[in-house]
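Hi R.,

Here's the chain you asked about this morning:
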Amino acid sequence: MANMLDYLDWRGDIPFSADPFNEVDSLVLSEAAYVDFEGIVPGLEEGAPTDSPHRGGIPVVRIADVVRRFWELHNEAEIQNSGTLYKLAPYVLDKLCTGARFGDMMVGGYVNTVSQEKNEQMSAITFFLSDGSAFTAFRGTDDTLIGWKEDFTFSFMKETEGQKSAVNYLNRLYGGRNCGGGREALEGKAAGHGTEQEEADFPVRVGGHSKGGNFAVFAASFCDKAVRDRIVRVYTNDGPGFLEEVTETEGYLEILPRINSVIPEESLFGVLLTSRYYHKMVRSSEKGIWQHDALSWQIMRNHFEEADELSEGSTLMKRAIEAWVYGMTPEERRDAVDSIFTLLEDTGMENVSEIAAEQFRSIPDLLRAYKNLDTSEKHKLHETLGSLFKSGASFISGEIQERIGIR
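And the predicted structure, written out as tokens:
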């Protein structure tokens, strides 16, 4: 079975002029967005030296220089000891600079914002491709508790701080320019970066994995109209949906036909909340929650291997979670998220992988943190867990009754 690393080995030497940008390319660049580019890729700052390379008005660096600099700052032991799902992303980055497809790519616009005060984690990077287009990739949930907490706020907030920052990123990067680009420009433009005028008109693709996919769809829907008109495609790879009110807005409905959603057959993330768009289901070499790892998704030539249907386990989990979420008011959902993450944050641990690595050794910290909660916080936590167990038990009981013909 082949994954995106194999794809880069086998097809990384095929230029976009021979095989246009596809869904696998979007996943490759979305995975690369998990790499720590701090001190390597320039941001959106204006005032960079005018004699340095620029694309779309921002300073950029060549992908080969990015890879070289990354390994000057990091080593394999550090990468291998990471407990995250995306720890192999640097190896995807490695392969980007070895073939004709991505070898002359320029990279810029790196931002990485993590704010505990705002419950925000948003990171983005933009790749300028040889077909004359740009691909903005939003990073998915990182290893921080802050990042995970923001994921849960999708269940009660129409707009999170991270989503607002994603919208602002697209507007800053692509706003205020000639908007004659878009799909027509992409179809008619020869390979290469072209003239200065063409660079002002380049078409845009946006994407991401996990929460990055959610940010990509949200930012494309709510960015300025002139920017949205330049977006030719939006890719969400196992990204969660939104509250229903979001999917009823004018901007969302306008971008909807341009959204490409891919989820694994046992998806637990991409099926959550409301989306309205079609999900392409793909095969994975993993099982259950580990299918969220994009490196497990199976690829044949320049496309994913499709699965026949969503797994029974994924469908049941989706319904159970929705029974819990929609059984509460938005205020109750907010209290539920706050109570759970207050407990986790009070352990002193800041990363999800840290909690997972500690396993049973973290239980005393959790108990100590629970004792330190005030009465109202303990009450909220009890209500949250009680509601979860009640909803889950009620749902499972109902499913069993229906299957054996009691109802």
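The domain at 4-311 is CATH 3.40.50 (Rossmann fold).

Let me know if you need anything else.
M.
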